Amino acid sequence: MGKVVMYSSVSVDGFVADENDQPGPLFDWLLTGDVPLDEGGVLKVSQTSYDYTRPYWDQIGATVVGRHVFDLTDGWDGKPPGAVEHVVVVTHRPAPEGWDPDAPFHFVDGVEAAVAKAQALAGERIVEVAAGDVGGQVLAAGLVDEVRMDVVPVVLGSGKRYFGAVDAQHLLEDPDEVVQGNRVLHLRYQVRR
């Protein structure tokens, strides 16, 4: 099985969105360079950010998100973001009415079942878990192997926390990587077992 990685862009004070679920400038770093990060050329980053981010994105086999994120994005119109092959949605509700059953989205009750489903779908590739409430639940369940953060130089003051409502201490190893890009600091930590 591939490793489980919790990931998101995050403010210096630890938020992935404001109180209204808006990311504000958290994704601006994806538009500050001259190297296309995606096939459409919409996202352009510095060469340093490209060299760090693109290989990681290419290893992702499945992404785990919560129903809240799924609903906010309208399910990405049935097309997983970033060309990820599968999205596993943690939810107590069924797929939305009229949802295309052939879309590569899987609706699963509970984080343990969602990670297991994502690992089965991803095989040896990475299972990415979106930071926030679901990511914090996966971390608390002891299922996260690695934490990746794209730290953006902004203080949001309040909002949706990177680790959600985690209320216990979880130790990480020293950073494996610290990479400075344009308007972003990429960090990678292994979770201490």
Automatic annotation (TrEMBL):
InterPro entries: DHFR-like_dom_sf, RibDG_C. It comes from the Bacteria. The lineage of its organism: Bacteria, Bacillati, Actinomycetota, Actinomycetes, Propionibacteriales. Signal peptide: none annotated. This is Dihydrofolate reductase family protein. Gene3D superfamilies: Dihydrofolate Reductase, subunit A. Pfam families: RibD_C. It comes from Kribbella karoonensis. Coiled coil: none annotated. Residues 4-170 form the Bacterial bifunctional deaminase-reductase C-terminal domain.
